Amino acid sequence: MIAVSDLKAGMTFEQDGKLIRVMDASHHKPGKGNTVMRMKLKDVRTGATTDTTMRPDDKVKKAFIESKPVQYLYSQDDTANFMDLETYEQYEIPTSVIEEELKYLLENMEVKIQFYGSEVIGVTLPTTVVLKVKETQPSIKGATVSGSGKPAIMETGLVVNVPDFIEADESLEINTQEGTYLKRASK
């Protein structure tokens, strides 16, 4: 058991038979009354998110989540396929569970999948990925980094705001936590 006041973003716990991931947690002291924890929670299995408050001294059962290195193979219909790098065992994950993560995945990319017991519950991406620009507006001569930028569609379908000097077919480093452009990828 873990106290609600010890929960941080990214932690997972069990409650009423549900597996819940903390997206955001903060202490809140109203003008009158006791301190409460404001939290944004996500049901790992259904993807539903809720905003809630809990008392800091409440207890929840921490879920033990295990990660395994895997290679993303391909997506077909509504299933994404991964292969364990050690045992070559293959895992199928419904694309609805990892909809956001798929925007950063290229075939043969190494990632980690998360297990709760024998149940696959998600994918952990690296902090940055290199993606190629599939489509963007033509570059503007004399453009600087400090300009407002323009949207670029990456090879995976992800749309990222990039500086005006970026052109199609360039490889860019993208932050997977925020979905933002970092820099041109080194060749």
Automatic annotation (TrEMBL):
<dbReference type="InterPro" id="IPR011768">
    <property type="entry name" value="Transl_elongation_fac_P"/>
</dbReference>
<dbReference type="InterPro" id="IPR014722">
    <property type="entry name" value="Rib_uL2_dom2"/>
</dbReference>
<dbReference type="InterPro" id="IPR020599">
    <property type="entry name" value="Transl_elong_fac_P/YeiP"/>
</dbReference>
<dbReference type="GO" id="GO:0043043">
    <property type="term" value="P:peptide biosynthetic process"/>
</dbReference>
<keyword id="KW-0648">Protein biosynthesis</keyword>
<dbReference type="GO" id="GO:0003746">
    <property type="term" value="F:translation elongation factor activity"/>
</dbReference>
<keyword id="KW-0251">Elongation factor</keyword>
<comment type="function">
    <text>Involved in peptide bond synthesis. Stimulates efficient translation and peptide-bond synthesis on native or reconstituted 70S ribosomes in vitro. Probably functions indirectly by altering the affinity of the ribosome for aminoacyl-tRNA, thus increasing their reactivity as acceptors for peptidyl transferase.</text>
</comment>
<dbReference type="InterPro" id="IPR013185">
    <property type="entry name" value="Transl_elong_KOW-like"/>
</dbReference>
<dbReference type="Pfam" id="PF09285">
    <property type="entry name" value="Elong-fact-P_C"/>
</dbReference>
<comment type="similarity">
    <text>Belongs to the elongation factor P family.</text>
</comment>
<dbReference type="InterPro" id="IPR015365">
    <property type="entry name" value="Elong-fact-P_C"/>
</dbReference>
<dbReference type="GO" id="GO:0005829">
    <property type="term" value="C:cytosol"/>
</dbReference>
<dbReference type="Pfam" id="PF01132">
    <property type="entry name" value="EFP"/>
</dbReference>
<dbReference type="InterPro" id="IPR001059">
    <property type="entry name" value="Transl_elong_P/YeiP_cen"/>
</dbReference>
<dbReference type="InterPro" id="IPR013852">
    <property type="entry name" value="Transl_elong_P/YeiP_CS"/>
</dbReference>
<feature type="domain" description="Elongation factor P C-terminal">
    <location>
        <begin position="129"/>
        <end position="184"/>
    </location>
</feature>
<protein>
    <recommendedName>
        <fullName>Elongation factor P</fullName>
    </recommendedName>
</protein>
<comment type="pathway">
    <text>Protein biosynthesis; polypeptide chain elongation.</text>
</comment>
<dbReference type="InterPro" id="IPR012340">
    <property type="entry name" value="NA-bd_OB-fold"/>
</dbReference>
<dbReference type="Pfam" id="PF08207">
    <property type="entry name" value="EFP_N"/>
</dbReference>
<dbReference type="InterPro" id="IPR008991">
    <property type="entry name" value="Translation_prot_SH3-like_sf"/>
</dbReference>
<keyword id="KW-0963">Cytoplasm</keyword>
<feature type="domain" description="Translation elongation factor P/YeiP central">
    <location>
        <begin position="67"/>
        <end position="121"/>
    </location>
</feature>
